[in-house]
C-alpha cells in the first residue's frame, strides 16, 4: 500500500487486470478502460478496499468470484447502472473515484497491492463488520432478485412458445441468457 500511486502505475495495473481477468459486467470493463484513457482521470482514481462512505466509489467483480458484478456508490446512493457511473465520471472529471476490485487471489496479488493507496478514514466511520454485513445483504438481495427474474422469464418463455410468439420469445430468451451467463 502506497501513499502516492502514479497515473502510469494505475494505467499499467488496469491493463494488466483486464488481460488476466474478465469482469462480470462487460460495461464495467469499458468503464475501466475509459478511466485509464486519461491521465487527468487516473489522477482521481484511487484503488482501495474502503469503498463504503466514500463520496464516489465503484465496486467491480470478476467472473471468478461470488460478488455483485458492479455497484456505483455516490452520496449514500447505490446503483448497478454502469452508464450512470460513466456519465458521472464524464461530467465530473475533477471528483475522486474510489475503486474496489474483487477477483480470485486478490489478497495475494502483488500487482493490486502496488496500486492500493493509503487513504484517510471514511467520513462516517462504520465498523468493518457492519460494512461486510450490509454488503452481504445487498449481494443476497441482488441474487434473490436475479433468481426471481429467471423464474419469471422461464414461465414467460414457455408461454411465448405455447403462443408461438417469436418476438416475445426472442426478447425474453435474450434477457434469460444474459441473466444466466454470470
Indicate the structural class: alpha/beta
The CATH top-level class label of the largest domain: Alpha Beta
Main beta-sheet strand count, sense and barrel state: 5 strands, mixed
* Residues in helices, as a percent range: 40-55%
The CATH topology of the largest domain turns out to be hypothetical protein tt1805
Q: What number of structural domains do the residues give?
A: 2
Spatial separation of the terminal alpha carbons: 31 Å
- Are there runs of 5+ residues with pLDDT below 50, and where? none
Which sequence of SSEs, written as H and E, runs from N to C? Answer: HHHEEEEHEHHH
CATH homology superfamily of the largest domain: Uncharacterised family UPF0302, N-terminal domain
Mean pLDDT across all amino acids: 87
How would you describe the overall organization of this protein?
By secondary structure, the chain is of the alpha/beta class. The protein has two domains: 7-123, 3-Layer(aba) Sandwich (hypothetical protein tt1805), CATH 3.40.1530.30; 127-182. 53% of the residues lie in helices and 13% in strands. It is built from seven helices and five strands. It has helices at 7-20, 26-35, 39-44, 82-91, 110-115, 128-163, 166-180; strands at residues 45-47, 56-61, 70-74, 77-79, 97-102. The chain has a five-stranded mixed β-sheet. Strand 3 and strand 4 form a beta hairpin. Helix 1 (7-20) runs antiparallel to helix 2 and helix 2 runs parallel beside helix 4 (82-91). The chain is elongated. The two termini are 31 Å apart.
Amino acid at each position: 500500500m502506497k501513499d502516492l500511486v502514479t497515473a502510469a502505475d494505475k494505467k499499467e495495473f488496469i491493463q494488466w487486470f483486464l488481460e488476466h481477468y474478465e469482469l462480470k459486467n462487460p460495461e464495467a470493463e469499458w468503464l475501466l478502460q475509459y478511466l485509464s484513457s486519461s491521465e487527468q482521470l487516473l489522477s482521481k482514481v484511487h484503488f482501495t478496499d474502503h469503498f463504503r462512505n466514500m463520496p464516489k466509489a465503484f465496486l467491480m467483480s470478476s467472473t471468478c468470484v461470488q460478488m455483485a458484478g458492479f455497484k456505483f456508490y455516490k452520496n449514500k446512493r447505490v446503483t448497478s447502472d454502469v452508464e450512470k457511473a460513466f456519465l458521472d465520471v464524464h461530467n465530473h472529471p475533477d471528483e475522486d473515484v474510489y475503486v474496489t476490485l474483487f477477483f480470485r487471489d486478490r489478497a495475494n496479488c502483488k500487482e493490486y497491492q502496488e496500486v492500493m493507496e493509503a487513504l484517510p478514514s471514511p467520513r462516517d466511520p462504520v465498523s468493518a463488520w457492519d460494512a461486510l454485513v450490509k454488503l452481504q445483504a445487498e449481494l443476497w438481495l441482488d441474487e434473490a432478485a436475479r433468481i426471481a427474474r429467471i423464474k419469471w422469464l422461464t414461465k414467460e418463455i414457455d408461454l411465448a412458445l405455447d403462443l408461438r410468439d417469436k418476438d416475445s420469445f426472442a426478447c425474453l430468451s435474450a434477457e434469460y441468457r444474459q441473466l444466466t451467463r454470470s
